[in-house]
Structure formats: C-alpha cells, structure tokens
UniProtKB/TrEMBL annotation:
Region (Disordered): 1-35
InterPro entries attached to this UniProt entry: DD-CPase-like, VanY-like_core_dom, VanY/YodJ_core_dom, Zn_M74/Hedgehog-like
Limits of the D-alanyl-D-alanine carboxypeptidase-like core domain: 124-254
Protein name: D-alanyl-D-alanine carboxypeptidase family protein
Molecular function terms, GO-annotated: carboxypeptidase activity
CDD domains assigned: LD-carboxypeptidase
Keywords: Carboxypeptidase, Hydrolase, Membrane, Protease, Transmembrane, Transmembrane helix
Domain of life: Bacteria
Length: 268
C-alpha cells in the first residue's frame, strides 16, 4: 500500500465499463445519490424560520396589547369617578355630595361640640370659627350705626324637616316651589354651621325678603363681609336655581369651610 501514490497501468485486456457511471467509485456514486438531501434540509430550515417569524410577530402583537392594557386601567383608576371616596355622614370634615336634590347639595350636620353661640341667650349657634368672625363683623358694623341681627344659624335635620315639609304643606306648595326658598332636610347650608341668615335691626320689615338688599345692613355687608370671610350664598340667577336670598351668608374663612362649599362642585 506504500505504492498507492503510483497508479498501475491498466491492462489492455480489461474490459471497458459499458456505462460511464462505472468509472466513478462506488462511494462517490452513493454520494451523488444523496447529494439532493441538503436541499431538502434547506427547504425545511426556511420553512422553520418562516414559522418562527410568524410566531414572533404574533407574540409581539400580544405583548403590545398587554402593554396597552395597564395604561387603560391606569386612566380608569385616575378618573374622578374611580378616585372619588364616599364621605361618612356626620364627619366634621365631610364635603357636599356632587349630586343635588332640587338644586341643593347634601351636607352633614355639624357636631354640637363644634358649635358656639352668636347671641346672648345661646339660641343661635355657628361653628366656632364662624361664630368668632360673625361677632367681630357685627361689632364693626355697630360702630358705624349698622344693626346686623342674626335670624338663623345652625339647623338640625329636624329643624329643616319642619321648615321644608310642614311649611310646604301649610302654604300648599309643591316640592319644587318649596325648594326654591327652603332646602330639603339634609340639603341645607345651615346644617354645616357656617351659614347665617342676617336681618337689619333698624328695618325689620324687610328681613327675609328680596328687598333686604335695599337696607343699610345689606349695603354694609356687600362692602365689608369679605373682610370677615363671609359671602352671599344665593346670588341672583345662581346656577343652583335657588331664589335670590340677600340675607343668607356663609363663612368661608378656613380650609374646612372652603372644602365644604367648593371642593365637590366648583365656584359659582
């Protein structure tokens, strides 16, 4: 076998192969027969890659949908309807319900412990901060010859029930007519302890009348009430549809009173 590199001369008597394929060694002929197999593997490979590509696209679309979903959920959670928390009735920090009844917002009754008198006999009360401001305001008005007389301050639910239902029946008013001049129980600003009805001690005939705005007391309040953090609740043509009440004022001199009247509904 050491002479394998020198080919032997073929014998002239050796018969020639009838087919050219016989000149190719068996091993090479077998290689010729299996040569097409790699082409088949390539086709399979291309098919597999295409399938993987489709699967990747599908997976990408699914992930895109998954990524978008939390954004939608976040927006829903941040919406006012989703974040609004119900307020417990009677809570001193409660804010009015955004919904109204016959044009009036719902208010919880102020705790008795937070009330203070604004008249000598203690029959009319307001929240302590509001009561202090009201006393200072009436004292300042008196120095200018103006008599501010408190007619009504804090009212309980029972007080308001009488003023709305019983007076409505006595006057033969329907619910809507009565609501224009008196809120249903649970929906009066007087429940908060921040509201007060004011009259003119020098012109009592015009008390609780739209013509109260013609009195000296009203003119003084219009010019000076803001100094003591009081404002008119029901102006002419107010958005709540409540009748004009020039005698009805409310205290907005601390954060709690501001939240009570403005947080849930926006400024008039």
């Amino acid at each position: 076998m050491d002479n394998a590199g020198t080919p032997e001369k073929p014998s002239e008597t050796t018969p020639k192969s009838p087919l050219p394929m016989d000149d190719i060694p068996v091993a090479q002929r077998e290689g010729q027969e299996v040569a097409p197999k790699p082409q088949t593997n390539i086709v399979l490979l291309i098919g597999s890659l295409a399938a993987l590509g489709i699967a990747a696209l599908a997976a990408g679309s699914f992930m895109a949908l998954r990524i978008q979903q939390p954004q939608t959920d976040t927006l829903a959670m941040e919406s006012p309807a989703a974040t609004a928390q119900p307020t417990q009735a009677g809570s001193p920090t409660a804010t009015p319900n955004a919904e109204t009844l016959l044009g009036h917002f719902a208010y919880p009754a102020a705790p008795q412990a937070e009330l203070a008198p604004i008249v000598a006999d203690g029959s009319i009360k307001m929240r302590k901060a509001a009561a202090q401001a009201y006393r200072e305001m009436t004292a300042a008005a008196q120095q200018e010859g103006i008599s501010l007389v408190p007619i009504s301050g804090f009212r309980s639910l029972e007080d308001q029930k009488y003023l709305y239902f019983d007076v409505k029946a006595d006057r033969n008013q329907n619910a809507t007519e009565r609501a224009k001049v008196s809120a249903p129980p649970g929906y009066s600003e007087h429940h908060t302890g921040y509201a007060v009805d004011i009259g003119d001690g020098n012109t009592p005939a015009l008390n609780l009348s739209p013509d109260f705005d013609k009195t000296a007391a009203y003119r003084w309040l219009k010019d000076n009430a803001n100094r003591y953090s009081f404002e008119l609740s029901f102006t002419k043509n107010n958005r709540q549809g409540v009748s004009y009440e020039p005698w009805h004022w409310r205290y907005v001199g601390d954060i709690q009173s501001l939240k009570t009247f403005y947080k849930a509904r926006g400024q008039k």
